[in-house]
Inverse folding.
């Protein structure tokens, strides 16, 4: 049977709208699929495209009230180009003299946004309801949720996105600069904000006064009354210049006095920087071509296991260098390699099993181990299964979930210490309903995270990568980053 053009019932076409070239009785077939040596096939392709254009002009002349073709409903490319759509290869044309539009489907998967929001939600709720309640002067909540698996999940996510971004980058140095441009500016601004808030508000909480001058306000030790009374609340730590300098230089984890931490969540910052630098050095070295993927992943996991004895030399050395949590990044890379058939299922199961065992030994909570295991399984399903926006419930919540995922890094930075200060202020102000205090603290953290994202994180990344705009357009991995709480 000879092929003849079959023109679908098209809406009205306007100049520049895509027009499909259909040459099969049953389904559209690309011109490229016709035999190149067949003259009749070439003629059919040529006249078929012209026939489709003429038909669309006629349809427009007959009925001008029909809506224009929607690019999201007919996502095809220009005639002569091929694209696989729902398993079929199709070719499309544009109207003569009009510029062609090539709609591109975003590679961002909604599944990762869901996982990221679940993880950051448990981090925030755990810190706000559990850890903050142990702070002096903060009225505890009747419900405390303490399931410590959220931060570990975010580190696994960060490891997962290391692999594709560093492979797509044409320069490992540009990749590392893109990572640091995303990670450090928002962190440094948050450090300064927390320092200033602690030097002012926390001094008031302690019933102390500042010494004279700007130096007394920002750096000198506050003056605490000798007799604070029997009912006085225990003092909060007021950071000094040494604390500020250690946090700016990412050396705060080497300080064995945990009382001097500006924020308990900041321990992940030097860990991520160390891992990113280590990944960049490894990618540039010859070991990348000599060692197999399982060897590297098992080696990193082994380093995490044997890092614990280093605490005998320096208490915080395993955590400050990132070795203590290196297995989490290795787990993320393993999931990516398994997704692309570069790691066997046996190695994946053993590596993830080792990760869960280390998590069990180091956290010691049953709920945390169960939740962490389930989230790792969910990651594996997200890599090889359909995107989760096909689920009706998640589809309805797609916009708020994606928005929260976009500000999750800022939320991770601002929620703990600033949330504790706000909770203490609400307790002293007499806000007694626990649900109201909890709502105010969480809501304020979300707003602060959004402001930090739109005013600091994104503008700073654009500025720091502006001179390399041409290279990053061809190399999107150079400016992208997957950090704790953040997306790619």
């Amino acid at each position: 049977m000879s092929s003849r053009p079959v023109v679908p019932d098209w809406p009205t076409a306007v100049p520049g709208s895509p027009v499909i070239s259909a040459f099969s009785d049953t389904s559209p077939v690309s011109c490229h699929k016709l035999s190149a040596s067949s003259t009749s096939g070439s003629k059919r392709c040529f006249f078929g495209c012209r026939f489709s254009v003429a038909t669309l002009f006629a349809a427009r002349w007959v009925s001008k009230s029909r809506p224009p073709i929607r690019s999201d409903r007919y996502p095809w490319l220009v005639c002569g180009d091929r694209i696989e759509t729902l398993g079929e290869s199709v070719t499309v044309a544009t109207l003569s003299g009009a510029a062609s539009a090539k709609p591109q489907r975003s590679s961002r998967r909604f599944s990762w946004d869901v996982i990221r929001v679940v993880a950051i939600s448990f981090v925030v709720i755990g810190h706000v309801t559990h850890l903050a309640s142990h702070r002096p002067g903060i009225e505890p909540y009747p419900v405390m949720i303490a399931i410590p698996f959220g931060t570990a999940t975010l580190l696994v996510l960060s490891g997962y996105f290391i692999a594709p971004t560093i492979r797509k980058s044409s320069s490992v140095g540009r990749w590392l600069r893109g990572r640091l441009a995303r990670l450090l500016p928002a962190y440094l601004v948050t450090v300064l904000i927390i320092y200033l808030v602690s030097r002012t508000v926390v001094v008031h909480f302690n019933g102390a006064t500042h010494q004279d001058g700007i130096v007394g306000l920002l750096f000198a030790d506050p003056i605490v009354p000798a007799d604070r009374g029997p009912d006085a609340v225990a003092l909060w730590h007021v950071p000094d210049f040494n604390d500020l300098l250690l946090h700016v230089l990412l050396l705060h984890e080497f300080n064995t006095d945990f009382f001097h931490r500006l924020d308990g969540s900041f321990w992940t910052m030097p860990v991520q920087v160390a891992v990113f630098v280590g990944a960049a050095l490894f990618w540039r070295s010859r070991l990348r071509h000599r060692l197999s993927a399982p060897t590297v992943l098992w080696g990193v996991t082994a380093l995490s296991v044997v890092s614990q004895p280093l605490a005998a030399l320096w208490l915080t050395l395993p955590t400050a260098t990132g070795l203590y949590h290196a297995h989490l990044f290795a787990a993320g890379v393993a999931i990516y390699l398994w997704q692309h058939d570069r790691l066997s299922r046996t190695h994946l199961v053993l590596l993830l099993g080792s990760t869960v065992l280390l998590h069990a030994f180091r956290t010691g909570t049953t709920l945390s181990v169960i939740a962490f295991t389930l989230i790792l399984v969910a990651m594996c399903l997200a890599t090889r299964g359909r995107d989760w926006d096909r689920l009706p419930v998640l589809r309805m919540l797609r916009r708020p979930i994606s928005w929260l995922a976009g500000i999750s890094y800022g939320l991770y930075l601002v929620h703990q210490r600033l949330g504790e200060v706000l909770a203490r202020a609400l307790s002293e102000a007499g806000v007694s309903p626990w649900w109201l205090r909890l709502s105010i603290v969480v809501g304020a953290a979300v707003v602060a995270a959004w402001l930090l994202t739109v005013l600091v994180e994104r503008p700073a990344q654009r500025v720091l990568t502006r001179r390399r705009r041409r290279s990053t357009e061809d190399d999107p991995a150079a400016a992208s980053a997957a950090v704790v709480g953040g997306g790619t």
Observations:
- The first helix runs from residue 39 to 62.
- Residues 110-478 form one domain.
- Strands lie at 18-21, 83-85, 88-94.
- The longest strand covers residues 88-94.
